[in-house]
Amino acid sequence: MDNNHSFYFRPWHFLLAIVIFVVLTGIVAQKKVKDIPLSEKDNSILTELHEINLDKKGITFLFFYRKDSELCQKMRYNIEQLDAENLHGIHFYAMDIEENAEYYYKYNISGIPNLLIFNGDIEIKRVMGVVSTNNLEKIVNRIKPY
């Protein structure tokens, strides 16, 4: 009799591995997002908009959010942490999608928080989800006018 036992992967092994991976990444991501403070809204670089009229010149960051979203508040906090002295020539605006639903559809927003970056009236970058202040600074440094 052969004492060599072979192990075969069954379909449920792969399914179990995927479930474990999704659960673990969800736990890690939730922990990282919970560590970010909520927006304080005092002394913000973001100007609240109810209507969008993009200039033909200049860089514009347009932040779409929902007031009751904790993720949006955390992303707003990260944006507000940017060094204002490093932002010359860049305009920052925020728009609540619940109060301005027509812009949600006009700019094809698929989820929030969502940050659209324009050069004049042309979209050059789209950033979805909560992004760290360090990564936002890298984005600003890549596109800011000198």
Automatic annotation (TrEMBL):
<keyword id="KW-1133">Transmembrane helix</keyword>
<dbReference type="InterPro" id="IPR036249">
    <property type="entry name" value="Thioredoxin-like_sf"/>
</dbReference>
<dbReference type="InterPro" id="IPR013766">
    <property type="entry name" value="Thioredoxin_domain"/>
</dbReference>
<dbReference type="Pfam" id="PF00085">
    <property type="entry name" value="Thioredoxin"/>
</dbReference>
<feature type="domain" description="Thioredoxin">
    <location>
        <begin position="57"/>
        <end position="141"/>
    </location>
</feature>
<protein>
    <submittedName>
        <fullName>TRX family</fullName>
    </submittedName>
</protein>
<feature type="transmembrane region" description="Helical">
    <location>
        <begin position="12"/>
        <end position="29"/>
    </location>
</feature>
<keyword id="KW-0812">Transmembrane</keyword>
<keyword id="KW-0472">Membrane</keyword>
